Amino acid sequence: MPIWFALSFIAFQPVEISLDLVDTWKHDHIFGGYRFATSVLPDGRLAGMFQKDMPFVINKESYEQLRPRGQGPGDLQSAFGLFYGDDRLVIAEHTGKIKFFKQAGDAFEWERLVLRKAGPSGFFIDDLVFCQDRIFLAGFTMIMGRNDKITRTRVKVYDADGNFQKQLVSETGTKDDFVNHSLFKEQHLASDGKTLFFMGEESMRVWEIDGASASETRVVDLEKPAFYKPITDKHYAPKKGGGFWTNNEIDERVVFWKTTYSRVTNLEIMPEYLLVQLRTTRTSGPKFALLFYRRSDLSLAAIAYLNDLMVGVHNDKIYTFKGGNPGIDDDAGDAIVHIYRTGL
């Protein structure tokens, strides 16, 4: 399938819409860390994980840890990607393990372990989609080449048995073309079971991927909203004098890095729209903007403002975590899910 590239030059003011809060789930739990993965289940429950939390399943009535921490069959350790697809909950770990859990009623039973066979170079996992019997992993790879060129690969594709098939979303340039400390940037994947969309947190460029062929079909620079503030060389900057930031130094800088430019915080798919959530960078007022792009031509149709972090969609409902990201926002962390509905 041919790939085409589009640029949006025509600026116009999208329709500003409001979201109706239709439900709230609240539980006695505190989330921790800024990296997260979530997936809405067909029955409306939310499966998810945060950097400092084991994978969980939550609804209005209960919050339950999905599996215990450990090394036994079905146990979990360093989960960094989670997705529900093809009646299974699939979880990726940085050890190269991909674990499949089959839904049985309200529970998830251990099904099988897949060992991810090595593709080109190492890979830091940010997100996961299981689609069309393939495992799509979003993350970051850097490969050194001649003439000081760098190729960064951001999506790797494996078959259902963990065999490497191909890499997608590869960009080549000089060292100066890419901002430093890319390992701290987040990559996002969304899928409706047939089509995938990929975005990195640092730009409004989106890749559309056909799940059946695992090929890129569109690359589009999405129209930016009027408030858009691009990334600068101060974001994810290297440590002066060389060397690496310590964990404590990184924790001190994450809030600045993650809140002072219009960072993509998540993307989700609705039947007619691609939803992209951005930081507004405002010192007062809503922290996030939710942008609705028409799937037909990826033009910007509407925008809504809110203080909650989008974590999923189900039918016409938008799932969010109250207050934003617990690793970044002071008023976030409590296990409170706000569910909104839009009239679009």
Q: How many domain regions? A: 1
**Elements, N to C (H/E):** EEEEEEEEEEEEEEEEEEEHEEEEEEE
Residue fraction in strands: over 45%
CATH fold title: Neuraminidase
What is the top-level CATH class? Mainly Beta
CATH architecture: 6 Propeller
Characterize the structure shown:
Strand 20 and strand 21 form a beta hairpin. Mean pLDDT is 86; it is low at 1-11. The chain has a single domain, classed as 6 Propeller (Neuraminidase), CATH 2.120.10. The two termini are 31 Å apart. The chain is globular. With 344 residues, it is mainly beta. The chain is built from one helix and 26 strands. The strands form six sheets. It has a five-stranded mixed beta sheet with strand order 1-19-18-17-16, with no helix packed on it. Strands 2-23-22-21-20 form a five-stranded mixed beta sheet, with no helix packed on it. Strands 3-26-25-24 form a four-stranded antiparallel beta sheet, with no helix packed on it.
Summarize the structure.
It contains one helix and 26 strands. The protein has one helix at residues 247-259; strands at 4-7, 15-16, 20-30, 36-40, 46-50, 56-58, 63-65, 79-85, 88-93, 97-104, 107-115, 124-131, 134-144, 149-159, 164-174, 187-191, 195-200, 205-210, 215-221, 264-269, 273-279, 288-294, 300-306, 309-314, 317-321, 334-341. Strand 6 and strand 7 (63-65) form a beta hairpin.
